[in-house]
Design brief:
Helix content: 25-40%
Structural class: alpha/beta
Number of helices: 12
Mean pLDDT: 90
Radius of gyration: 24 Å
Largest sheet: 5 strands, parallel
Strand order of the largest sheet: 1-7-6-2-3
Length: about 325
């Protein structure tokens, strides 16, 4: 009897195997490996991949926001407010990175996990707003999520090319995100102060007038720049006609001489770590210089410590 039962089970298992073979199950989606910039065509070709999380980051910086998102966005995109939960105020310094615990909770709520690639979609209308995308990108990298990209040309390019849109709100499906911070990507005010007089390159991403001390950010308490810093306005990397970064050849040609032939640490800073993220993105992610880090407190944080030196003339002209 046991032999008969065993024979029946084998026959049943064989029948199930034949049935499964005859009706192939759909293959599970694979998580794509992203390049720092992805094209609109690539994203459209991969819209059905549930291992890709699309973040629409339109914000007041580009005179946009959730109202525009609701009227039309890339199918499946989740709206992610900027600066929103991506930045915070601490010890009187605005725009710094929130706590690791806070970011883990927020990204888990958005549905970020190790199995998902993230594509950040800026509005695509200015270098200032592109800086928001690079700041979010840098945040992902700092938190240990490597598989992240920015949509080249952003929402504006997608719309101009008449690619598909959907309306209404997409509610995130939560997941579990656990950060593995990469401390090499972030420096503190104490770290920067300790680097004065060393071979470190301090790369100031602000406009020349702010670097020279003729103007300043409204939250900075003093005019000028970190002693020994080199000025390289992040806007130099941006093509305002196409609202994209300039071509790879142009970016290479524009690379600041101070960082081109050195293995010394390069500290990218600005006012609050926004513009600094663009210089970091181009140098590190596109030109391959892995000795570049970001000082997120930047001049707002530096200027508030009165014992820290500042170079540049002091003039009573303030700007945003």
């Amino acid at each position: 009897m046991l032999g008969s039962l065993h024979s029946s089970l084998i026959k049943t298992a064989g029948a199930v195997a034949v049935l499964v073979a005859g009706f192939a199950l759909p293959a599970a989606a694979e998580t794509p490996d992203l390049t720092p910039l992805v094209s609109t065509q690539w994203l459209q070709d991969n819209l059905q991949n549930d291992r890709i999380l699309i973040l629409d980051t339109r914000s007041p910086i580009s005179k946009s926001g959730k109202d525009d998102y609701l009227k039309g966005h890339i199918p499946g995109a989740i709206w992610s407010e900027y600066p929103g939960y991506w930045r915070t105020d601490r010890d009187g310094v605005e725009g710094v990175l929130p706590s690791i615990d806070k970011m883990e909770a927020v990204l888990s709520e958005l549905g970020v996990s190790d199995e998902k690639a993230v594509v950040i979609v800026p509005d695509g209308k200015s270098s200032l707003e592109f800086g928001a995308a690079t700041r979010i990108y840098w945040t992902f990298k700092y938190l240990g999520h490597e598989n992240v990209a920015i949509l080249d040309g952003g929402q504006a390019a997608w719309v101009a090319e008449k690619r598909p849109l959907e309306t209404g709100n997409v509610v995130p499906e939560g997941d579990l995100f656990v950060a593995e911070p990469n401390d090499a990507l972030l420096v503190s005010t104490d770290d920067v102060a300790g680097g004065l007089g060393s071979n470190a390159v301090f790369l100031d991403a602000r406009p020349e007038k702010q670097f020279a001390g003729a103007e300043k950010h409204k939250a900075a308490t003093r005019f000028g720049h970190i002693p020994g810093a080199v000025n390289f306005d992040q806007d130099t990397f941006y093509d305002h006609k196409t609202n994209r970064l300039k071509s790879p050849a142009e970016l290479t040609a524009l690379e600041p001489a101070a960082v081109k032939d050195t293995d010394a640490p390069v500290i990218s800073y600005c006012n609050t770590g926004h513009w600094a993220a663009t210089n970091w993105f181009v140098l590190s992610e596109l030109l391959g210089r892995k000795n570049v880090t970001v000082y997120d407190a930047s001049m707002v944080g530096w200027s508030r410590q009165k014992d820290l030196p500042i170079s540049g003339p002091e003039k009573n002209v303030a700007s945003n």
